């Protein structure tokens, strides 16, 4: 079998070199960032795992971990906290989603310096809450009125923030006196004039298909956008659009290339015949989330499929570093993540080959699979740490340059 560095380099070989180098640098920070950037390793290894518990087939987001939950503004303009990344989404064994999340708890908590006893308690809590809510058969959701603890505080703070605050942070006044995107070489990077012109023209055409945007907004600036870890190296753009009736009002749009799910090569489950990878991502997000992000849709630019949505601030996620010494707060957040995971699976049950709710309820009531799943997550977290050390050694030696 190929080494860890070889597997990682091969998987990322078709991505944009400069931004893939940024991904490799980010993955070298700690085991958790490495885990976030190597979803393909996780599922390749999982597909070869012997005696892994069987489970019903359901829709999964595919890359579930502690930082793939966050707030976003829904198409009804309210703020929600939910699963928010579906790039790897597809039809797969239900337990695959759960065990990736639990592995992220072990890896993430260790990176935060949380002791093993509390980490185990947090993982147990996720498993219990997930099973309980799945067995209830009722999909729930989180918004300000239904949230508790730091999630409620978090949502209240985000709700109070105005759109113009985000615009102010991401833009600056240009030579012509009008707003333009602020190129900071951290989140936003420059693009050439030809690409910029094509993007603006394309997005203006795309907005004509949206009742919310048609004849109301005009695209005025575009740049390359960097966000996340796993998706670094794919084409991604931020666009500034201006209200045609009030030049003081603006909106930011995220345009992200959709590639095939890294889970797919290791699955034997038949998948629907999607018209594009962007259609796959959006279709799964539409059925798993309670309320979807504003402007969520697809397009095709320069022959490649893209997912479109209103740009969401990268800061709108729970910062576990701020609460790493507050066990009760972390436990409360993880408990919420557990019922959101179960709810997403129940919400999408029975669709295009997914198990019906009764099968998921029965799985939630069964306890025989839980101990083996917990054991695998514990063992694989140790494997992630080992793989990270092998990767880090190769990275420092210049293998990825």
Helices, strands, pairings?
Layout lengths: L3 H8 L5 H11 L3 H6 L2 H9 L9 E4 L8 E5 L5 E5 L6 E4 H19 L3 H21 L12 H12 L2 H8 E3 L5 E3 L6 E2 L3 H15 L9 E9 L10 E8 L6 E8 L19 H12 L8 E5 L2 E7 L16 H21 L9 H9 L4 H27 L5
Antiparallel strand pairs: 1-4, 2-3, 5-6, 7-8, 8-9, 9-10, 10-12, 11-12
Helix pairs in contact: 5-6, 5-13, 6-11, 6-12
Structure description:
With 401 residues, this protein is an alpha+beta fold. It folds into 2 domains: 4-69 and 93-146 and 322-396, no CATH class; 163-310, no CATH class. The protein is built from 13 helices and 12 strands. The strands form 4 sheets. Strands 7-8-9-10-12-11 form a 6-stranded antiparallel β-sheet. Strands 1-4 form a two-stranded antiparallel ribbon. Strands 2-3 form a two-stranded antiparallel ribbon. Helix 5 packs antiparallel against helix 6 (116-136), helix 5 (94-112) crosses helix 13 (370-396) and helix 6 packs across helix 12. The longest helix has 27 residues, at 370-396. The radius of gyration is 21 Å and the shape is globular. The relative contact order is 0.20.
